[in-house]
Amino acid sequence: MDRPIRVLVAKPGLDGHDRGAKVIARALRDAGMEVIYTGLRQTPEQIVASAVQEDVDVVALSILSGAHNHLFPKIVDLLRKEGADDVLIVGGGVIPEDDISGLKEAGIAEVFTPGTPTTTTIDFIRNNLKR
Question: Is residue 38 over pLDDT 70?
Answer without folding.
Answer: yes
